[in-house]
Each structure stands twice: as structure tokens, then as C-alpha cells.
Amino acid sequence: LWNYLAVRVEFNPTAQWHLPISEPLQEQRCVVGAIVTAGSQSALVATAHLAWNYEASSQPSKLLTALAGHNTAQYDVIVFGDFNHEIAWTSRYMIQGGYATKQNESDSPTGLKQGKLVDQIWNAGPGNFVPRETSRIEESRALSDHYAVLASFDVIG
């Protein structure tokens, strides 16, 4: 199913889950999530890997439905992953779902084969986890055809 979510133990991951976001006859794609806690605040953190081709058109709505279904406590939500499309394509879906990002089209590409900013971080919620900055990790290039992306958040409360 293409993706894993690794959470540092000090963030007390709980309520781990995964759901498919692809159609039955497509290459199988999923979203993986968990609740994490920093101080007194909790957030739903998830990772997704969307298809690179026409199969992706139905996947953002399934991703948003899965996130909403697992966020019954109305936590902040942080979702990241390989969206396999430029940020303008992803924005159409994620902004409509109430998500924002610190990334923009002028940021350096993260997917080298695609030459696009495909590795993205989106967030939504009451604002206890406030995004500070997003950066591409140059050292990760030696391990993959993607650059890793790091996001910093301030935790309020």
C-alpha cells in the first residue's frame, strides 16, 4: 500500500489507522494516520501517497473523507506525503477541504523525476499546531528520487 507513518515515541502515538483511497481495480494507495500529543495538545497526523496518473482524480476526496472520519475530536490535522502532482493541482482539493500549506509553486521541486513540488504538507484545524516553515532536506537526495520535506510547527497551549 505504499506508505508508512513513523512517529517518535515522545509524541505518544495512539489510535493508529489506515484506509485505502484508490478504487478497487487501481494500484492500491492508502492514507495512514495516528493521533499524536505535544504537551497538552493533540493532532491527527497522516501520510498519503496519491497515484501519478489519471487514477489520482478520485483520491483527494477519499483522502479528505478519511481524515474527517478519523478526526471526530476536532483536532488539528497535519497531512503530508507524495501527492505526485504539482501543488496547484493538489490545492484545488485541499483548500476546498479547509486545508492550508506554507508551500507554494515557486518552491524548489521535491520529486526529481517529476521536476515538481510533489511532496507536500497540509494542515487544518483550530490552530493549536501553527505551521512555522517548510523546507526541502538536501541530504535526503542520496537515498531517493525525492527530497524529504520538513515542516516546523509551534504548539499553542
Defining traits:
single chain; globular; 157 residues; mainly beta; 7 strands; 5-stranded mixed beta sheet; 2 helices; two-stranded antiparallel sheet
Characterize the structure shown.
- The chain is mainly beta.
- Helices cover 13% and strands 35% of the residues.
- The chain contains two helices and seven strands, in the order βββαβαβββ.
- The protein has helices at 59-69, 87-96; strands spanning 14-20, 30-38, 41-49, 76-82, 119-124, 129-137, 148-155.
- The strands form two sheets. A five-stranded mixed β-sheet has the order 1-2-3-4-5, covered by helices on one side.
- The model has no long low-confidence stretch (mean pLDDT 90).
> Which value, in Å, is the CA radius of gyration?
15 Å
Largest sheet: 5 strands, mixed
Overall mean confidence score, pLDDT: 90
Please provide the count of β strands.
7
Percentage of β-strand residues: 35-45%
Structural class: mainly beta
Choose one word for the global shape: globular
Number of helices: 2
| Distance N to C terminus | 36 Å
Work out the helicity level. Answer: 10-25%
